[in-house]
Amino acid sequence: MSSQGPKEELPGLLPLSEQTRGEDISNAVQKCLEDNGIDINKIVSIATGRSRSMTEIHRGVTSILQKKINHEILTFHCIIHQEALCVQTFPAKIIEGMNLVIKSINSILAKAIYHRQFKDFLEEIESQCSDLLLHNKVRWLSRGNVLQRFALCLSEIKTFLNEKSIDYPKLEDDKWLQKFNFIVDTTMKLNLKLQGKGNPAYAKLEVVCFEKKLLLFVEDMESGKLLHFKNLKQYRNETNATIEANYFSMALKNMKDRFVVRFEQFKTNKSTLAFIVNPLNTNTNEINIEPFGIDAGSLEMQLLDLKTKDFWSGKFTELKSKLEELEVQKCMHIAQHKWTALKEIPRVEALIFSAWNSLPECYSEVKKVAYIVLTIFGSTYPCEQAFSCMNIIKSTVRSQLTNKSLGACLKLKTTIYKPDLIKLSKGMQRQCSH
Question: Residue 409: inside a domain, yes or no?
Answer without folding.
Answer: no
